[in-house]
Amino acid sequence: MLSPYCTPIGSPEYIQQWEKFTLQQQNASPEALMQRAAQAFVGKWLLLHHSSTDCYIFCGTGNNGGDGFYIARLLKEKGYEPQVFHLTSNGVLPEHIRLCLQELQQKEVALKLLRTESDFPALPAHSWVIDALFGAGLNRALNPLCTHLVNHINQSEANVWSVDMPSGMGANQFISGACIRATVTISFEVPKPAFFLSLNTENLGKWEIVSIGLAEDFPAQYPPVLQLLHADYILTIFKPRQAHQHKGNFGHALLVAGSAGKMGAAILATRACLQSGAGLVTAHIPQTYANALHTDLPESMVTFRENGLPALSPYRSIGIGPGMGSDIAAEECLHSILVNCTQPLVLDADAFTMLSKHPEWLSSIPAGTILTPHPKEFDRLFGSHTDEYARATKALAISKQHPWVLVLKGSHTLICQQGKGWYNVTGNVGLAKGGSGDVLTGMITALLAQGYGSLEAAQLGVYLHGLSADIAVQSSAYESLLATDVIAHIPAAFRTLYDTNAEN
């Protein structure tokens, strides 16, 4: 059963099933859902906007257009004078859309059909446009007339509010061509997969979620493929420390990292591992650089690459890759760990460079291993992808085929296991800098050492990593954020969990 603390992310298919379930359970009609959507949208609109400036509503022929018709009716009832523009191809409207259009006409709302570009209205600067052309179900590029209308709206200086989705955007697939550039997107019930992809950020604008009263028990009975990773869920997996525990309870972590010119990565990963709670941490590095690590991190122990791989049995978790290099000795070390290790692994950075050269080694990756690639590393391992939608879909498929946890790093990192995915809500653009991934590897390795399962360690590590960055930029700036700043704020991120847990 789905945790009550998880928020579904709704694909069009999932939302359609949820609406159908709701209609049956509540003995409601499609018109009733559209009316609820309109009420929720207008409630949020009025909360954030109180002026009487011009309002232009653009409606399509589907359910999203029906939402727009009901929005116009509600605004009319509240004293506004909305102007409605219906994009039509002279086709037959669905019965429930035709009925809500008739109701709108009875309210004497100004209505104009858009059949050619000459029908497009002039949009004064700072006027309000409500985009109800196409919703989450769109699965094709816009036709020429729609494209011209979208460009006409985008070229204006109007404030654009999109109903559920900016028209032209695919909810869970890439659609090339024109797309509304919204100031605000008001989406219904749950966020859509597209909201977590960086290529959509500019078109989404600020987005808000409003409820339209869909059946609350549906997600528990029919768990979604994608969910939102947020604070309430994280608190269900976080394990606060008890006063009687000692360092042996928190495990011994091994980090295989560092090489000529890349010892900074090893130091960052090791420091983050120590700062994230591992009882003991050993760095397996080239002997030449031992003084650098001993001086910077006296809390860490060291073994030397030249002496061969140490016995793995003392370690509860192993992180491999940050600054490790990819020469023959590094390849031998990685392969030996893959075939001999029974502990949970975290693979990152140079580990992916070596795996991409030896794809046959993928079959040796132990169950429960956490892979943390950024998009280019992911593509080197699993083939090139044309867009973020395709890459996320592939990550989910791979996690279903292999007993791994995949952490696809991005502006909203996607964590995948067994065909299910979680998008993270913490983090900021300041993390787009060298060293951030090394810090994440150290944090996840530390959580594995403390006894968290692979999925839990990945989820908690990604969340805390982003939260540390969010806390850090409160007294800094995105441009100035360093990986060492993220590490310095890991204690504050943990403190936030402890304080929130105490409040609950």
Walkthrough of the structure:
With 504 residues, this protein is α/β, with parallel strands linked by helices. It folds into 2 domains: 11-222, Rossmann fold (3-Layer(aba) Sandwich), CATH 3.40.50.10260; 232-503, Ribokinase (UDP-N-acetylmuramoyl-L-alanine:D-glutamate ligase, 3-Layer(aba) Sandwich). Helices cover 40% and strands 16% of the residues. It contains 18 helices and 18 strands. It has helices spanning 12-26, 30-48, 63-77, 95-106, 144-155, 201-204, 218-221, 231-237, 263-275, 290-296, 328-340, 350-357, 375-382, 388-401, 436-449, 454-472, 483-488, 490-503, and strands spanning 7-9, 55-59, 83-87, 110-114, 128-132, 159-163, 184-188, 206-210, 226-229, 252-256, 280-285, 301-304, 317-320, 345-347, 370-371, 405-408, 414-417, 420-424. The model has no long low-confidence stretch (mean pLDDT 92).
The CATH homologous superfamily of the largest domain is called: Ribokinase
- What is the total number of structural domains? 2
**Percent helix:** 40-55%
Largest sheet: 11 strands, mixed
Remind me, CATH topology of the largest domain? UDP-N-acetylmuramoyl-L-alanine:D-glutamate ligase
